[in-house]
């Protein structure tokens, strides 16, 4: 799950972008309602995947920001208002004079017929202005979502650029899980640093086995250890580097099974504990929120066949 979180976030952003691009109406309230409705369906499909809700909230914020900026761009500045006030003080504009004369004139059928085409043209002009503003809003939202997708695709590289600030020569690094962000983080440090990596096996899915093979293929000095040996090995470790599924509002993280045990062991021995995670994993919800489902409940048959119970 941890290795696909960035992919889920990127695919959600692309799905929302596609839904917005297919809309014929481009008003802000239409975009918001479309994203909100689709977001509820995506969140209900997989409540454990909090990154989907993060993406929906981010896109909704983009729509609101672009709508507000589009409104303020057309407003005159304070200097413009002052200049206009200075120019019109003590004078009546020609439009005000014409409006006053029109009110003083007696109503007639001829004047009503002349005013109807003008009102119709004015209504069409306002409708055209509203349509143009809506399409400008849609285009701005699409461009900002494209920037968001590019940001997601480059987040691992940006995190890895800071690897040399944390990892030094001849250090021993302990990790848990199977995070692509951690792999790129360690690979960047390996270009200029020589260090050893201990990988906890991560029962019951044993993701550490595949992760240790991947690191060995990259040329790392890798040692696979059991989860029960973490507390015994932590005193020989210089740093713990792990990925995160989600970073909650209280600073806690949701990660693979065994991460809490590893954090407690690192705290007991005073070992630095580094979590590498992109900003799109920051969740505004607290763990106590009933909407948050911290654990994914599945059938035990994935780990142990039912026939073994009967025996």
TrEMBL record:
Q: What are its GO cellular component terms?
A: eukaryotic translation initiation factor 2B complex
Give this protein's Gene Ontology molecular function annotations.
guanyl-nucleotide exchange factor activity; translation initiation factor activity
Residue ranges, annotated region (Disordered): 71-91
Query: Pfam families this protein is in?
Result: IF-2B
Q: Which family does this protein fall into?
A: Belongs to the eIF-2B alpha/beta/delta subunits family.
Q: What is this protein called?
A: Translation initiation factor eIF2B subunit beta
Q: Which organism is it from?
A: Linum tenue
Upper taxonomic lineage: Eukaryota, Viridiplantae, Streptophyta, Embryophyta, Tracheophyta
């Amino acid at each position: 799950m941890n290795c696909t979180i960035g992919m889920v976030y990127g695919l959600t952003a692309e799905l929302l972008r596609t839904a917005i691009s297919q809309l014929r109406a481009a008003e802000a309230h239409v975009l918001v309602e479309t994203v909100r409705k689709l977001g509820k369906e995506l969140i209900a499909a997989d409540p454990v995947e909090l990154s989907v809700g993060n993406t929906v909230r981010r896109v909704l914020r983009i729509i609101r920001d672009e709508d507000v900026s589009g409104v303020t761009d057309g407003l005159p500045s304070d200097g413009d208002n002052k200049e206009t006030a200075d120019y019109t003080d003590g004078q009546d504009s020609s439009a005000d004079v014409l409006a006053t004369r029109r009110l003083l004139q007696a109503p007639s059928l001829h004047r009503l017929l002349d005013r109807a085409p003008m009102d119709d043209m004015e209504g069409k002009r306002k409708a055209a202005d509203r349509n143009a503003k809506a399409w400008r809003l849609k285009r701005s939202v699409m461009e900002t979502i494209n920037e968001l997708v590019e940001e997601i695709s480059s987040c691992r590289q940006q995190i890895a650029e800071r690897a040399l600030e944390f990892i030094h020569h001849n250090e021993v690094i302990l990790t848990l899980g199977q995070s692509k962000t951690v792999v790129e983080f360690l690979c960047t440090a390996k270009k200029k640093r020589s260090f050893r990596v201990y990988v906890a096996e991560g029962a019951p899915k044993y993701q550490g086995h595949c992760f240790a093979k991947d690191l060995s293929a990259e040329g790392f000095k890798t040692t696979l250890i059991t989860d029960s040996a973490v507390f015994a090995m932590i005193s020989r470790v210089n740093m713990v580097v792990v990925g995160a599924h989600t970073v909650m509002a209280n600073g806690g993280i949701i990660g693979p099974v065994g991460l809490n045990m590893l954090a407690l062991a690192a705290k007991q021995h005073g070992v630095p504990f580094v979590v590498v995670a992109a900003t799109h994993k920051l969740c505004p919800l607290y763990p106590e929120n009933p909407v948050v489902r911290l654990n994914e409940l599945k059938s035990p048959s994935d780990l142990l066949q039912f026939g073994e119970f009967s025996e």
